[in-house]
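Budget justification note: compute hours in this period were largely spent on complex prediction jobs such as the one shown. Inputs:
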Amino acid sequence: MNRGILLTISGPAGSGKGTVIAELMKMSDDFRYSVSATTRNPRPGEVDGVNYYFVTKEKFLSLIENEEMLEHTEYVGNYYGTPKAPVEKTLDEGKNLILEIETEGALNVKKMAPDSVAIMLLPPDGEVLRSRLVGRGTETPEVIEKRMEKAKKELNLLDHYDYVIINETGKIDVAAKKILEIVNSEKLRTSRNMDIKNNYFK
Amino acid sequence: MNRGILLTISGPAGSGKGTVIAELMKMSDDFRYSVSATTRNPRPGEVDGVNYYFVTKEKFLSLIENEEMLEHTEYVGNYYGTPKAPVEKTLDEGKNLILEIETEGALNVKKMAPDSVAIMLLPPDGEVLRSRLVGRGTETPEVIEKRMEKAKKELNLLDHYDYVIINETGKIDVAAKKILEIVNSEKLRTSRNMDIKNNYFK
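Corresponding output:
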């Protein structure tokens, strides 16, 4: 069986990451969504292994220590991260694994798993990005400015990504199909198919 | 306009290169077939600029000298090669250019044009390759053995290629569609889209 591909998908707030990923998972059964580990307490209704892997701080720190985390971050006193073992299991089963992740985390994954594929999703341009944030009607002008500043920093990291997809307004399916094409194409990379060379002339 | 992509397609005799490329060009109008330059004389019916660019030996040597050839080779006293200028023109017009080329030439193109995409097309395995060659009924056993030896050498160069496509028997359209997906996906590479970064926040 062909091994699946580890995909990190990043993009500023307003890029439509969540919607595009949901569309992609409707289009194909070959994708799985990564479950993070966290040291925070489960909220009512949250299920271990579904929403998160809930682990103790000691366990989390030992996973980091033993290089068993693909990436991790600390946020208001709790740790969040991606444990390697379930990722490997999913890839070995031939399923592609999606990590929806901040730029910093994506770059760390790329370091730990150089054969992962990093995709940046972007709204058509800065103005559309701003109008999407304003259109939500939920953020104050200060928050919107902060998000715009953050988007600029994220865009500066574009070189570290493998692919960039412009998520045109109203064309979620087009963006999802582009991810599918990237994955199909990545599966044909010679670096992922060196077994052909060894088994060709028996 | 987005610049086209330069594709080299190689594969052993019996891999079905020609048929797959013909199918690809039926599927999409975004591909052009590269015209080689040669110092040999035109045969009856051959048209300059269509079958070949017919040039003098002096002209050919000066093109090499000035690094205006992407690759070239000598065969029974005549030169054959790919001049850069028409390639650049086609790519600038947004069309993808296909070079059906021997492994050695493909590796030279990759050196001269690192942003080109090198694809190796292969029959499912060595036995199918042999049976396709035998099935043609036009080659002597000696020629078939020579072709098989050549195929082994070509396969050894697989690492230098970007992508490998297995051309399953009777599935020409699948192989052609894979090339199309590779090109669509390559167009989304961040390295081909750095203008986004510069124009995003105006």
